[in-house]
Amino acid sequence: MTTTATREPRGRPGPGARSGAALAVLPGILRSALGWTDAHRTRFALPDDVLEPHTQVNGTLKPLGELAQLGSTIRRTTAPGTPEHELAGDLVAYAWEQVAEGELLLELLRAEPFAAYPYEIYAAFAGYGLRHEGFEALARPLTATRAWAHTEQHANRQLGLVNSERRVGTVTHTDAGAVLSRTWLGGLSEPWMFEGPSGYALTHTVFHLTDWGRMPDRVPEKIDRYLRTWLPAWIDGCLESGQWDLTGELLAVAASLPGPAPAELLDAVWPVLAGAQHPTGCVPETGAPVEDPAPDPYPFIDCYHSTLVTAFAAALSLRSLRSPEQTDGAVPGRERRTA
């Protein structure tokens, strides 16, 4: 793994991690990260020229889609009536307003019927119960085309499209199990081949497979065993190299596994990630955490995703440690079986 930190992280997980250490820090981590996100919600606002060809999707629609996706998961994972639950719901509502309650996504789909990203962003809202009739009316014939079924993309990205179809409630264009077998994780790749890109590929494979942690039982037993065996070593490498964003995603994976929570791992790692979180609530993507007391110690683009991921992973970890068998009863879309 490529290292980026300039100094040793604030502690490393050890074999003697205190029982309950994760539960001691997780509520504060979640509250602080969500508070920072709320204070910076206007930074997720879409520009007036968002529909113009020159607008960069990665700097506009991508952050907003991530706010919708992770915010909706946090809302579903936290207890009704708690500040975190209400705030997560407010953030999703803000994101829905930014896309004009789906109208803007319909315009994107009309302009780029060959692109999957408008559909995937819409699916984040649809999975939460926010729907736009016109968008779905246009999407139905598009997702039934040969071109849609044969879009060339990496296996974990195709698994994401399958999950988006499930969320919208349409027939999936291929079998999720067949796609999973072609991913880095589904192939049970040699663990010592783990590095940054494969790390993000495997985390998103789990997110798409489990619908962002909502359906842990979708993780096959052999993948569950593989992850429980190797997550500690991979996370240790991420901590050593200051990869806070990937650490958060791997913690979310650990909290998305079926059955008992990997409590020893969560107890060992969460206090370390808490040490990387700035007092304002933000978390850097990579590198040594700064000691700057300024309200914005990092550029927004360098911390918004890692902060959202930290909140997401914290909410899943709290659920996993408190009620490991809980799911929200999501109903999957119809699977199209392919040979």
Give the arrangement of secondary structure elements:
Elements (H helix, E strand, L loop, with lengths): L20 H19 L21 H17 L5 H16 L4 H9 L5 H10 L6 H10 L3 H4 L5 H14 L7 H5 L15 H14 L11 H20 L3 H11 L8 H14 L27 H19 L17
Helix pairs in contact: 1-3, 1-13, 1-14, 2-3, 2-5, 2-14, 4-5, 4-6, 5-8, 8-10, 10-12, 11-12, 11-13, 12-13, 12-14
Main sheet properties: none
Please indicate the percent range of residues in DSSP E strands (runs of 2 or more). Answer: under 5%
Mean pLDDT: 91
Helices and strands: which structural class? mainly alpha
User: How many DSSP helices?
Assistant: 14
Through-space gap between termini: 37 Å
- Give the low-pLDDT segments: 1-11, 329-334
Number of strand elements:
0
Cα-based radius of gyration, to the nearest Å? 19 Å
Could you characterize what this model shows?
The protein has 339 residues and is mostly helical. The protein is built from 14 helices and no strands. Helix 1 packs parallel to helix 3 (83-98) and helix 11 (221-240) runs antiparallel to helix 12. The chain is globular and about 55 Å long.
